[in-house]
Specification:
Layout lengths: L21 H4 L24 E4 L4 E10 L12 H12 L5 H5 L5 E9 L8 E7 L13 E14 L5 E15 L11 H4 L1 E10 L5 E5 L14 H24 L1 E4 L2 E4 L1 E3 L4 E4 L9 H8 L8 H15 L5 H10 L5 H8 L4 H13 L6 H10 L1 H12 L4 H10 L5 H14 L9 E3 L3 E6 L6 E4 L6 E5 L10 E4 L3 E5 L5 E5 L7 E5 L3 H10 L4 H13 L6 E4 L9 E2 H5 L3 H4 L12 E2 L45
Parallel strand pairs: 14-16, 15-21
Antiparallel strand pairs: 1-8, 2-3, 2-5, 3-4, 4-7, 5-6, 6-7, 8-12, 9-10, 11-12, 13-14, 15-16, 17-18, 18-19, 19-20, 22-23
Helix pairs in contact: 7-8, 7-9, 8-10, 9-10, 10-11, 10-12, 11-12, 11-13, 12-14, 13-14
């Protein structure tokens, strides 16, 4: 599509079309008779008659205004985008918008964000923004996005070939300081004119999840020509939806004022609306996977036979992923079989069984998942997410121990999992510093590390409480704040501002003290990030600096290496041409807890982050992955 059509109509309706979604086409496949094991009882599952809806992200967009640029902005040229911005400024009561735009301290930006599946009103999401290609803006560094309304949008042309921006429903608001690549120099205009606001968007409406009957099980009626057969068909489909809702509610519910509340509601004869169960709040894909594995109806005899069949499949590494999900869908009735899987010598079988047990909150899952997170990069992201879903102290203990690991992604992954488990826990609670960003100082063992984020929320985590700046040093923290070491070995944090006057703080070389001084003088999250990045470049920090060091899905697992200790089980791992499978990719769906900006779930394979030469790997720029540079 042409570049001038930056504002596109979001693809919310595409949620009904699930082709291309790896976790849907993989382990979520229906269990039809021709593709199931011949000895397995043919129980009809929800996934045989229904597909998920609401599981794709929705793009929201807007034209926004960046302020505080100190001469690096520009007056936007006439365009549909400028017209939309002027209209928005007038709605908000800004007098003389043309005069404001003519200042060199502001810039028009095009922005977008993605409302993830299941997002709730008040939840935050990331904002990406850039200046138009024809803009004269030189840099967005130090800028602040004024509150902007985000909608599903598109550009249309009238009969005179004049373009106009049209917006749909208001879905979110966005504002905040712009985070620009701190490594970009003054000549890199491409990097300087793009940025992010981590967690800068606030969702205004809940995004519901749901199940829609497949074509063979829903009624395509012409309401203008009702007939008895059509009415009967519609009643049958309403009955199907009612059975689906009842089956889900039997397995998933919450308690409110002592009353059991089901997670599903049959809205009409085609749609079942789903509430997200709290245990799966960070892994919606798995929740939908498990829901679709729930049996519609099953006698006690049929269930006993199917559990016996699932046990055989669970202990076969080629089928264990799908068998574990079906056992998880049975709830307490599947636990004993899953416990047998945890005792298996095969690492894949042990992982899939432990993962399912974790979502059933069985403490037996904690130790094997902790071991897997430490030793198996391919399964790490799934193991950490599963541990975060548990409420047992055994899971908490495993995650706490992982905070001291040498691997950056393992220890930060454990931190994020602990935060997801209980953000009020004193170990990870931290504080919101200056009402700007989440800040955590962890007194843990392991090599000192500073971790920054550019997605989900603005956050700084210090692994090691006594990290220090090395003097002498002279670095910038944004456009107005400078850090300089004194002859006495302290750090002078100075702010030079026409509006607020000059200010100064003298603190020790401890990073904690320096960061707090920057914020006390009005510094933002991007200011602190720039200071840390410059300090690292000058060699003024002995600690390791990491950005979004997250475990990833899509890595391959070396089966042959694992089979060296047990060749008897290796013989059963053969592909369709009867040749041994040397590697495998975990079949679990990618969890939202460890999403990266622009991640293509399941599409990439990464090397182990836990290698001895990890710190010698070449480092890319702060936003290089985001912008494909």
């Amino acid at each position: 599509m042409k570049r001038r059509h930056f504002l596109l109509l979001a693809c919310g309706s595409a949620a009904l079309s699930m082709g291309g979604c790896s976790w849907f086409n993989g382990t979520m496949r229906s269990q039809s008779p021709d593709e199931s094991n011949s000895d397995e009882p043919q129980t009809r599952l929800i996934g045989d008659i229904a597909v998920p809806t609401g599981v794709w992200p929705v793009r929201v967009e807007a034209i926004g205004l960046i302020t505080g640029l100190r001469g690096t902005g520009s007056d936007p040229s006439p365009s549909p985008q400028r017209a939309a911005l002027v209209e928005e400024m007038q709605i908000r009561g800004i007098a003389n918008p043309d005069t404001v735009l003519a200042s060199g301290d502001v810039s028009l930006v095009m922005m977008q964000g993605y409302l993830r599946p299941g997002i709730q009103k008040g939840d935050r999401f990331d904002i990406e923004l850039r200046v138009p290609s024809q803009s004269d803006t030189k840099s967005l560094r130090g800028g602040f996005l004024l509150e902007t309304r985000l909608k599903e949008m598109r550009v249309v042309e009238n009969e005179s070939h004049q373009s106009r921006v049209l917006g749909g429903n208001l879905l979110a608001l966005a504002k905040g300081p712009v985070l620009v690549d701190p490594t970009a120099d003054k000549t890199d205009r491409l990097a300087l004119c793009r940025g992010r606001i981590p967690g800068g968007g606030v969702c205004l409406k809940n995004r519901p999840l749901g199940l829609v009957l497949t074509k063979g099980h829903r009624n395509a009626l012409d309401d203008s020509k009702p007939d008895p057969a059509a009415v009967k068909s519609r009643l049958q489909h309403a009955m199907y939806n009612s059975k689906v809702a009842n089956a889900v509610n039997k397995r998933f519910h919450t308690m409110k004022n002592g009353v059991k509340i089901g997670m599903a509601k049959a809205v009409d004869d085609q749609l079942v609306e789903l509430q997200l169960h709290p245990r799966y709040k960070d892994n919606i894909a798995r929740y939908m996977q498990v829901v679709r594995s729930i049996p519609l109806s099953e006698s006690a005899t049929e269930r006993t036979g199917r559990i016996a069949s699932l046990e055989r499949r669970l202990l076969d590494p080629n089928d264990s992923a799908e068998a574990a999900v079906q056992l998880e869908a049975l709830g307490t009735e599947g636990m004993d079989t899953l416990l047998k899987g945890v005792a298996s010598k095969d690492p894949e079988v042990r992982f899939y069984a432990a993962e399912a047990l974790a979502y059933l909150d069985r403490r037996e899952a904690a130790e094997p998942l902790g071991e897997i997170a430490r030793e198996q990069p391919a399964f790490r992201v799934f193991a950490l997410t599963a541990l975060s879903a548990m409420q047992d102290f055994a899971a908490y203990s495993q995650l706490r121990d992982l905070l001291s690991m040498p691997s950056a992604e393992t220890r930060y992954g454990a931190f994020r999992a602990l935060w997801a488990m209980n953000d009020k826990d004193p170990l990870v609670k931290g504080e919101i510093l200056g009402d700007q960003f989440h800040y955590h100082v962890l007194d843990v063992a392991g090599p000192p590390m500073i971790h920054l984020t550019r997605n989900r929320l603005a956050e700084i985590v210090l692994f090691g409480a006594d990290q220090r700046l090395l003097v002498p040093v002279l670095i910038n923290a944004g456009n107005e704040i400078m850090l300089k070491s004194s002859p006495e070995g302290d750090i002078c944090v100075s702010k030079y501002s026409v509006a607020d006057g000059d200010q100064k703080r003298t603190v020790s070389t401890r990073l904690d003290d320096v960061i707090r001084a920057i914020v006390e003088l009005g510094g933002t999250y991007p200011d602190v990030v720039q200071a840390l990045e410059e300090a690292m470049k000058l060699g003024a920090v002995a600690s390791r600096l990491e950005v979004d060091a997250l475990p990833e899905a899509g890595r391959s697992y070396d089966r042959m290496a694992a089979d060296d200790s047990d060749t008897s089980e290796a013989a059963g791992r053969r592909s369709a041409d009867n040749s041994p499978k040397k590697t495998a990719t975990p079949a679990s769906p990618s969890p939202e807890l460890f999403d990266k900006p622009g991640a293509n779930h399941g599409a990439s394979e990464k090397a182990d982050d836990n290698t001895d030469d990890e710190e010698e790997k070449p480092k890319k720029g702060f936003f290089s992955k985001m912008f494909g540079r």
